Amino acid sequence: MFSFHKTPRLIASTCCGVLLASIPLVGAAEQTGRYGYGEPATDEQIAAWDIDIRPDGMGLPEGSGTVDEGMAIFETQCSSCHGSFGEGMGRYPKLAGGEGSLTEDRPEKTVGSFWPYASTLWDYIHRAMPFFAPQSLTDDQVYALTAYVLNLNYIVDGDFVANKETLPKVVMPNHDNFTWDDPRPVVNNDRCMKDCKEEATVSDSAAGKNLTPSTTGPLDEGITQ
Amino acid sequence: MLGKLRRLNQGVSKMALEESERLPSSERRRFLRSGLFTAGGAMVGGALAGIAPRALAATQYPPEIPSWTRTLGSGVVTDPYGVPSPFEKEVIRRNVPWLTADKISSISFTPLQHLKGIITPNGLFFERHHAGRPEIDPQQHRLMIHGLVERPIILSMEDLQRFPSVSQINFIECPANGGMEWRGAQLNSLQFLHGMVSCAEWTGVRLSTLLQEAGIKPEGKWLLAEGADGAAMTRSIPLEKALDDVIVAYAQNGEALRREQGYPIRLVVPGWEGNTHVKWLRRLEVGDKPWMQREETSKYTDLMPDGTAHGFTWVMEAKSVITSPCPEMPLTGNGIHQIEGLAWSGRGKVKAVDVSVDGGQNWQQAQLREPVMSKSLTRFSLEWKWDGTPALLQSRVIDETGYVQPTLTQLIEARGTNSIYHKNSIQTWQVNADGSVVNVQLS
């Protein structure tokens, strides 16, 4: 009887001992905000991965490139998709043109007509282009391509040399047409329940437009509806 | 013949034979014969046993005894990782070939018409890649946190899993969902019209925990998240949101993230544009200003009729859609039908959903099905007696902020037809007398 009572008590005290020991540890992490996992990132590791460029030029590396140099690289590495003058082949994006089209029925949003910052061009070409071989270009090549695409859009002259001093000073034509505060909600619908409007009339129907791929059968490239 | 029988016999599973050892001999003979029937298939086994007529019956329902009741099924671990029944082979993600130049930077759509409840199965979660789906070795993958922090750190995937974990159910929607329909009704399919929304239970580490580990400097106001794919996709996120409910997720519906969803880790930014939920996450940088990346300037900004554009329109506003009936799921006859659908809001919980069967003249409040969670898909349903006459079905969600889902006309009045993104207007399904359902727009 005695030992029967004693055993649970022993277990209980062992269990509480464990609990007590672990509480300060959890508290320590909560207090300092640190678990101490992982390893410190070295300057060299950070420099190799930190590739983002900001409008104020933060992140731009040493190096430079001219419009002419850019034209030569563009012809071999970019024109197959974007066209020699950035006009866009097939459904690949246009990189030039479209000025004044933003209020039209079919706006053409390009580097020249739409992009608010030149830094974004350097950043994006460097991180993602050419499409089939991202992050394969040298910094000088990226400067040259940036200069060329800006020149295609009449934003810089043919003698422009892109580098970390000149690029942040380039003012994009559409820069002032962006707002960065979300104005929504901009629509105020009533929660009307009865007799909310006159009879509803259909203005457009997807029937018979032959744009919908099949949603049955195997995946295919065809449009069957 | 005997050789053939023996070969057939080998098809009877070992476990079934062991089971039969324990039966009385008469029972055992019967058991083995039925086993033979499984192994040999209906024709051979059936002919031998003289039960062909039954096996050949055209139907399997009463009064027939189904063939699957009189045979053994396949054993455990036939599919060590389970797959859906072959009868569900149509339930797949699909793409619109004419939409993008190739499948590398492209989109696939979730088959919402087939899904039940609110959770999207992992294999059916919609895809949006900018440079294809990378194959990442988690042993080699690292997350770097640096910038305006006290202690820049590099975390392995094991390190990440040591932090306290959280699980939350959140939808992810591409802001271009429905974006093909601004200028008119084009696509006649729920899947292609609205299938760029999916919902899962995400498990991972709170971003606030990780940022605390690195120690944000007082000047820190913004966060840049970057992917490890060929697009090295980036978005700037204000720290206020980053420290609120954002998580670095490593699991989706209980298992490791799918590669299409960012394996081994992705950001989950509840209620915000899908594009901010950076997949294949490799880097988080704290800064004092936004970076104005391509994905937040050239793309994911909303062009207004006057030629100006709205940037940083992160929140996915409330939206709902009827999933049954829909073009893929027509009505099958007069009588009582359950109109069903999905509703969600990036600003919080769904408060109510109303349904109209007359194109928005009159509305009835639908029932919300539990669970109703913040920034998650929510199911609604309404019983409807269809008399076989044409109808115009609509659903309208009201979220907990009081926001009422707008009509397309209202949305176009406010935003024009060029914004591509954030088309969250009421969907109209036209029900024809034959029960077929068509995507239409109302004037």
TrEMBL record, chain A:
Region (Disordered), start-end ranges: 199-225
Sample GO molecular function, one term: electron transfer activity
PANTHER family assigned: ALCOHOL DEHYDROGENASE CYTOCHROME C SUBUNIT, BLL4482 PROTEIN-RELATED
UniProt signal peptide: 1-28
Organism of provenance: Marinobacter guineae
Keyword entries, A-Z: Heme, Iron, Metal-binding, Signal
Annotated InterPro entries: Cyt_c-like_dom (IPR009056), Cyt_c-like_dom_sf (IPR036909), Cytochrome_c-type_DH (IPR051459)
Record's compositionally biased regions (Polar residues): 211-225
Domain Cytochrome c: 65-153
Coiled-coil region: none
Name by which UniProt lists this protein: Cytochrome C
UniProtKB/TrEMBL annotation, chain B:
Membrane listed as a keyword: yes
The entry's keywords: Membrane, Metal-binding, Molybdenum, Oxidoreductase, Transmembrane, Transmembrane helix
Annotated PROSITE patterns: TAT
Cofactor: Mo-molybdopterin
InterPro entries: Ig_E-set (IPR014756), MoCF_OxRdtse_dimer (IPR005066), Mopterin_OxRdtase_euk (IPR008335), OxRdtase_Mopterin-bd_dom (IPR000572), OxRdtase_Mopterin-bd_sf (IPR036374), Sulfite_DH_SoxC (IPR030835), TAT_signal (IPR006311)
Signal sequence, start to end: none
Residue ranges of the TM segments: 31-52
Gene Ontology BP terms: sulfur compound metabolic process
Stretches assigned to the Moybdenum cofactor oxidoreductase dimerisation domain: 313-428
Keyword Oxidoreductase found: yes
Record protein name field: Sulfite dehydrogenase
